[in-house]
What does this fold into?
Amino acid sequence: MAEEWKLPTGELMKGKRGLIMGVANDHSIAWGIAKQLALQGAELAFTYQGEALERRVRPLAESVGATLMIPADVTDDASMDRAFAAIKNAWGSMDFLVHAIAFADKSALKGSFVENTTREIFRGAMDISAYSFVDAARRAAALMPNGGAMITLTYQGSERVVPNYNMMGVAKAALEAATRYIARDLGPKGIRVNAVSPGPMRTLAMAGISGGKQLMSAARDWSLLKEDTSMEGVAGCALWLLSDLGRSVAGECIHVDGGFHVVGVPEGVEA
Ligand code: NAP
It folds into this structure.
């Protein structure tokens, strides 16, 4: 278990209820965030995709006292209807949403973007990795009569070219733009919507990207902090944005990558 994270306890999320979408196992970014929110008093619901994942997610969810575990495939409207109906039934309303879901066919996450990206792969990646946030945000907002907060997870491959990230970079660019438009629509309702952009982290999703190891070492060696992105940092950023500490922050994309995203020319690279 990836349990050596040092996550602070407290009451910043006391009285708040929210949905976590995207825990696949105990290495998932959504799980690090969920643990941190629970340690600050949040009440959590989890969605999982399919029976195999339920077996992995259930013990994790139960370990933080969650009683609501709901199957949800973001490509299936009926499944999303049922998931949000279950939350409405159980809670009536909710205060926050964590969207940590992405997928692109493995064949499109290597080599040439222009050669490997078929129409089907493009549509599928955009649907699961970008549209799903629009859909989940609309459904969650309907259960936030008193305002709330939402975050999604993105990656810097949206802004710059990262070898092999290819189709996922295009989907993340759409996700970040969608975040700004969702934030515009929901802002007047007192709902703050933001994106968190971590550096590469060792998860299942990461394992699907060709050359992931080199990506991780470059992200560490060329970062300003000269270290891997930590779950503590990502979970802390999520806690800030989802708690009342994040007041006045909306439509942002916050990088949690040791400063890697500001580097123009990496140290040690000869001009
Ligand atoms: P992860 O543990 O594999 O989580 C990805 C989640 O997306 C899984 O729970 C996966 O479920 C879910 N998902 C995929 N298709 C779905 C669908 N149709 N319906 C419902 N759920 C679906 O990997 P992660 O790295 O923590 O990823 C979480 C988020 O962080 C993603 O948006 C990712 O792009 C982003 N991110 C990751 C990194 C990194 O380096 N790891 C860096 C920056 C941003 P299944 O396992 O069933 O497919």
The CA atoms of residues 220 and 227 lie 5 Å apart.
